[in-house]
């Protein structure tokens, strides 16, 4: 089981990367007034057939061959539903997949968001050929990180270079702090 | 808000170094962290972060690349880190933590000697 929602995000986004996505869009939106936390992960990867889609929330279904269980999506679904929230997954072969989880923020069983910056940073630096658009919002304020923008400015300078990697980490932490004022949830 | 202007400065500064790195040969050591559900749930993300940071801090970026992989079927031993040096047998480290990762950077990646006590082989003997 995951201990933070941000780890679920990392896990599910890894599926997008494995699906050959060129662009992965991740949105984390906290709205304390409405008592909702919405997390979505959208990709333009290979997508799933209707049959795969129907079974993807079944822990005993996986496309992997190393083992017979696949717990990533079921974990995320359960994490949302046990707070009284909702979970949905839409997919089309050749088009991509959209995963959306809505959490009731104040529910006692809601896991903390955790270190979401570390998740996004890991995804960006470990998948240098994939583009990411990350949008973080809190109570109506928001910021976006778009690696396509970064790439354009950087030319051929890679994301895993120490200075660039440090810039991405600072960009995430400073802008998150400005957006949510350091709220912990 | 942090601006993108800084990135431009980084680009100017880095371009020369990048060219150096690209012509520096292909014989890099690969460090691979298992990042499937099993790995992530048992703590692979901080291990990966520690490894990437240390490789950068110790100036090993040209010699060592840190990457990730999916489930290799040994979920009970996660987080797993594999070290693949050119021309040597692959070393599989199991049940990693950021602290153990730091030891591996010091003693294996820099010192050249695998840390036997954390390897899969040593676990099988028990």
CATH class of chain B: Alpha Beta
Radius of gyration of chain A: 16 Å
Helical proportion of chain A, percent range: 25-40%
Outline type of chain B: globular
Which structural category fits the helices and strands of chain B? alpha+beta
Gross morphology of chain A is: globular
Total number of β-strand segments of chain A? 6
| Largest sheet descriptor of chain B | 4 strands, mixed
The count of helical stretches of chain A stands at 6
- Largest Cβ-defined interface: A-B, 43 and 33 residues
- CATH C-level class of chain A: Alpha Beta
What is the terminal separation of chain A in angstroms? 19 Å
CATH architecture of chain A: 2-Layer Sandwich
Notes on the structure:
- The complex is a heterodimer of chains A (185) and B (126).
- Chain A is an alpha+beta fold and 185 residues long.
- Chain A has a single domain, classed as Histidine kinase-like ATPase, C-terminal domain (Heat Shock Protein 90), CATH 3.30.565.
- Chain A has helices at 5-18, 50-55, 72-81, 116-126, 147-154, 162-180; strands at 23-31, 36-43, 86-92, 96-104, 131-138, 141-146.
- In chain A, helix 4 (116-126) packs antiparallel against helix 6 (162-180).
- The model of chain A has no long low-confidence stretch (mean pLDDT 92).
- Chain B has helices at residues 5-22, 37-41, 44-57, 98-110, 120-125, and strands spanning 29-34, 64-69, 81-84, 91-93.
- Chain B is 44% helix and 15% strand.
- In chain B, helix 3 packs parallel to helix 4 (98-110).
- Chain B is an alpha+beta fold.
- Chain B contains five helices and four strands, in the order αβααβββαα.
- In chain B, strands 2-1-3-4 form a four-stranded mixed β-sheet.
């Amino acid at each position: 089981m995951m201990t933070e929602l941000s780890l679920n995000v990392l896990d599910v986004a890894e599926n997008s990367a494995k699906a050959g996505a060129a662009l992965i869009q991740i949105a984390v939106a906290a709205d304390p007034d409405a008592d909702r936390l919405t997390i979505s992960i959208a990709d333009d990867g290979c997508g799933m057939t209707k049959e795969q889609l129907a079974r993807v929330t079944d822990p005993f279904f996986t496309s992997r061959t190393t083992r017979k269980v696949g717990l990533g999506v079921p974990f995320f679904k359960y994490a949302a539903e046990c707070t009284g929230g909702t979970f949905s997954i839409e997919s089309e072969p050749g088009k991509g997949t959209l995963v959306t989880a809505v959490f009731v923020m104040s529910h006692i069983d809601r896991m903390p968001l955790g270190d979401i910056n570390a998740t996004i940073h890991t995804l960006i630096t470990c998948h240098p050929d994939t583009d990411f658009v990350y949008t973080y919002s809190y109570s109506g304020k928001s910021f976006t990180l778009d690696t396509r923008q970064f790439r354009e400015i950087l030319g051929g300078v890679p994301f895993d270079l120490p200075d660039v990697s440090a810039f991405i980490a600072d960009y995430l932490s400073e802008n998150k702090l400005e957006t949510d004022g350091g709220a912990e949830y | 808000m942090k601006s993108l202007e800084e990135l431009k400065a980084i680009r100017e500064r880095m371009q020369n170094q990048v060219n150096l790195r690209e012509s520096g040969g292909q014989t890099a050591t690969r460090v691979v962290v298992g990042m499937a559900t099993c790995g992530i749930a048992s703590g692979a993300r901080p291990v990966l972060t520690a490894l990437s940071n240390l490789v950068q801090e110790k100036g090993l970026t040209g010699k060592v690349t840190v990457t990730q992989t999916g489930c290799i079927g040994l979920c009970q031993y996660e987080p797993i880190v594999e070290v693949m040096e050119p021309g040597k047998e692959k070393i599989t480290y199991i049940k990693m933590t950021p602290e153990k990762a730091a030891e591996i950077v010091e003693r294996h990646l820099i010192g050249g000697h695998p840390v036997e006590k954390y390897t899969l082989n040593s676990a099988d003997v028990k």
